[in-house]
Amino acid sequence: MLADARKMEAGAVQAVLAGATVLCATLTGLDRDLIGDRRFDLLVIDEACQSTEPGCWVPLAFAECVVLAGDHCQLPPTVLSNEAERQGFGVSLQERLTHRWGERVTRRLDVQYRMHEAIMTFPSDELYDGTLLADDSVKGHLLCQIPGIASTELTTAPVTFIDTAGAGYDEETEPDGESRLNPQEAELAARKVRALIEAGLSGEDVAVIAPYSAQVRLLRRLLADVPGLEIDSVDGFQGREKEAVVLTLVRSNTEGEIGFLVDVRRTNVALTRARRCLVVIGDSATLSVLLFYQRMIEHFEALGAYHTVWENL
To answer: I want to staple 306 with a disulfide (CB 3.0 to 4.6 A). Which of 178, 215, 250, 301 is the partner?
Structure first.
């Protein structure tokens, strides 16, 4: 009876596949036993840059043409093995083809419909050859333009950078772990969130992002009373957006060590989650060991968005 049931199930699956014009699946959810000899005119792999290259090989065998959709300047594949990472396993198929063939195989979507122009400009100049354009519907929108939101220093500014250099906001290693946290920076981030809530925003409209899980856990404790507020790592906000984002960069030390902040693709993700208001908190003395962050801070200064922590105590 079990054998008969399996045959009936397999027959039902094949009947569904035979009548389908579009098939949706995970990359590794397809195999020859399931697909058989079927061929598809077009294969679209979404978020292709977050898949390892071998994962993409599986469905390629069934298609005549492939479109890889994604952004190789944002999060790469998650690879837990350091050895595999060193051997190139963390380079997606889309990233490799983009670097190899460039404009011959790529098409960039240049108009974005999320961010205020001031939030967009630095990532555009740094990672997208300055080609991004903000649609007219978003290029000048601010928090204070939302009905019920008060005009404050934060709600009238699309970008705010708060520099903690020299203030003694030193990072710490999490007890019984290896993740990093910065308690004073977390408290400052919490104050900025509460200022946004007091201005009229709901918790659902605000996100707090940190590159380290220990900082995320600390912030969740500090802001546990704010309903709807999302606090997560950079990876947790890939593909998401909020009206306001508070980003705490955590690293602050005399050695100039920035850990995996050296992968600026994650910082790119964090900077581009905000729609109308981006607040970045970090130690310029530590961050500036990498030219990317030095240019970021210079960009904020040019915008008039640079502030020291002494102005915000």
So the answer is: 301
